[in-house]
Amino acid sequence: MQIRPILEAETELTDRSHAPESVVLSTRVRLARNIDETPFPSRANKSQRREILARCQDAIAGLKMMQKGSVLEMQNLSDPEKQVLVERHLISRELSNDKGESGVIVSRDQSCAIMINEEDHLRIQVLRAGYNFKGAWKVIDRIDTGLEDKLDFAFSPEWGFLTACPTNLGTALRASVMLHLPGLVMASQMEKVVRAVNQMGIAVRGLYGEGTDASGSIFQISNQQTLGESEQDIIKRLTGVLDTVIEQEQNARQKLLENAAPKVLDKIGRAFGALQNGHLLSSAEAMNLLSLIRLGVDFGLLPENERRSVDKFFMTTQPGHIQIISQGDLENSDQRDVERARVLREHFRGLAPLDFDTLEKT
Amino acid sequence: MQIRPILEAETELTDRSHAPESVVLSTRVRLARNIDETPFPSRANKSQRREILARCQDAIAGLKMMQKGSVLEMQNLSDPEKQVLVERHLISRELSNDKGESGVIVSRDQSCAIMINEEDHLRIQVLRAGYNFKGAWKVIDRIDTGLEDKLDFAFSPEWGFLTACPTNLGTALRASVMLHLPGLVMASQMEKVVRAVNQMGIAVRGLYGEGTDASGSIFQISNQQTLGESEQDIIKRLTGVLDTVIEQEQNARQKLLENAAPKVLDKIGRAFGALQNGHLLSSAEAMNLLSLIRLGVDFGLLPENERRSVDKFFMTTQPGHIQIISQGDLENSDQRDVERARVLREHFRGLAPLDFDTLEKT
Question: What residue intervals hold the motif RDXXRA motif of the pArg binding pocket involved in allosteric regulation (chains A, B) (predicted)?
Fold first, then answer.
């Protein structure tokens, strides 16, 4: 199995030194780049695509941080393997549907993934745990510079970086953050927040692209515009919006505790009980239960290191991961639900019971 | 608190030697009796009722099995105390609403309760654990004979025992059994069963008098007719119907295990999880969760002695019990729900985790 190192590695994404970790799961920046005087992937023929793939792989191999990484080509991966990469946000759904002359190179710690021949020749992505645009930008800028040394990027003094789709033209930067917003969801304020955020040219989606009913109360918030602003301005404006959303989430949680503590404790307790004792768990339900556990950690009902476990399970209980972990002998989604419940049961039965009194006394 | 001995006693009702204990919770027989030449309670004036009460108390005090019992008069009991007696099926809802010159005498082991000045002068009730009409009848017959020695019962050679309501005329016997029928409920067969049973002149009600959507899947099945059949014939005919219902329940459970084992295991597991970790539990929900735990015991997922705990909690998690146990400082039903969850959590956290593999292997 080609993606074994990716599955088995302990990633560095769990470093939670950048507060407020209770709301922000991770930060991501992505740059689209294309080689000058070369057709975009959708316009290139097979041999051109093959050549682009080889040139990019070669350039990436020269980057220090990508050494010892995984070099993967789509045509060599099984469906569940591609699914795992999608679930880890290392490749896009679009790339996973592609059959040939495309691939991804994933750094050893999975903090960087560079797709080749997706919509653009190169899609460079850097992930950081918590709320950390500065750290992410520093790394992606270095990678971008390193690649520019070897590949001549398509760039227009007037338009900036040229991309296959005009929505990426200019900086070709997509900056985003994964937020855990159970407070706003429980308080039914998410729609209002989404509307306000959208009006500022900022997009909101679920963890896997869903809308406001995102499972697990996880939302991805990112810039929509790439043209007419510098990279720094894009991130600055996005940060301003994010700061407000984070504050609103923290207020919503505070109000929940003040006005409906027994109900919230009950929800968290039952989630814990279902994870410890369920026998059938769909991935959507698992997400929602894990989301409540994460909130339980934030409220001090579970140990701090469970936040790390929950964030890991958000990924590893997705269908592709369950399929791969059980070595592919699951015939249908019912069997996956049994296996998912088994995996979660095993972990959560190892924990001490929730101590409701802790919170009630505060 | 007058009913303390009733609350604190370990009753003998938990002797489960009479199979099939997985379906039958308890057996009850009840006789209505009235003193000859004396107005029925609803027609008697206050001083007549007082005299009836005294005469009956005196007669009952002479019975060996009622010695060391609790002699209670309604006017001396608080509302939660009366509620507890109703929840233990020791008095009727009707008697609990009565203000004066009425009462109940409860034997020390709570297997016998004799109401005075309810609808009739005397309502004698004997309870036995499991399926045991023979044992229950033997005891109630002895009590009836003992009382007849001291009180002259109203009896007509043509009609049999005379009662305030004609529906009790004749034997004045109500024989009933509490059945736990989760299999038939889950298989949506209960309505069909109730219709068939009703056609044979047998009544079906919930644990506290509800219909076919009885919480906890507990149903009370009893004879409707008291006239024109001997006591033995009534019990024989009822037993015939009960045997069929018990067999249908056992078949329904077998089919559930064959066709939907993962779903049933999941339900039982989640019930266990909610009892271990819930923070708010209504009494109706507690009944349903406990019902699933009882089924879990029957399926070998929990230790045998948990059947006894569940049967106890069916009673002690009712509102009156929760109110009394917490010493009455609960202001509303939300607080009772918190207290109920606490009591159940304390017990169920002491148990080992469910071992799904046991059942899956069989």
Answer: 336-341
Which of A4-18, A118-132, A331-345 is predicted with the least confidence, judged by mean pLDDT? A4-18
Of A270, A338, A341, the CB nearest to B277: A270
End-to-end alpha-carbon separation of chain A, Å? 50
**A262:B334 CB<8 A:** yes
CB contact under 8 A, A277 and B278: no
Distance between CA A109 and CA B12 in Å, rounded? 65
Cβ–Cβ gap B266/A279 under 8 Å: yes
DSSP letter at A30 equals E
Q: Please say whether the beta carbons of A38 and A52 come within 8 A.
A: yes
User: What residues 228-267 of chain A have any CB closer than 8 A to a CB of chain B?
Assistant: 262-263, 265-266
B341 contacts in chain A (CB < 8 Å): 266
- Provide mean pLDDT across the span B134-159: 95
Distances (CA, A) of A152 to A56, A140, A149, A178, A231: 11, 17, 7, 33, 20
Give me chain B's average pLDDT, please: 90
φ, ψ of residue A105 in degrees (nearest 5): -120, 125
Those residues whose C-beta lies under 8 Å from the C-beta of residue A339, and which sit 6 or more positions away, are: A322, A325, A326, A330
Strand order in the sheet with B24-33: B70-73, B103-106, B112-116, B122-129, B24-33, B173-180, B218-223, B202-206
Q: According to the annotation, is A21 in a ligand binding site? A: no
User: Order of strands across the sheet with A24-33?
Assistant: A70-73, A103-106, A112-116, A122-129, A24-33, A173-180, A218-223, A202-206
Q: What are phi and psi of B140, to 5 degrees?
A: -70, -30
B277/A341 CB distance under 8 A: no
Chain A residue whose CA is closest to B346: A353
Three-state SS for B287? helix
B334 shares contact with chain A (CB less than 8 Å): yes
pTM: 0.86
Which pLDDT score is estimated for A1?
Answer: 62
Question: Average of pLDDT values for B330-345?
Answer: 88
| Euclidean distance between CA atoms B207 and B86, whole angstroms | 11
Q: Would you state the pLDDT for residue B357? A: 75
Chain A residues in contact with B334 (beta carbon < 8 A): 262
Looking at per-residue confidence, does B210 or A241 come out higher?
A241
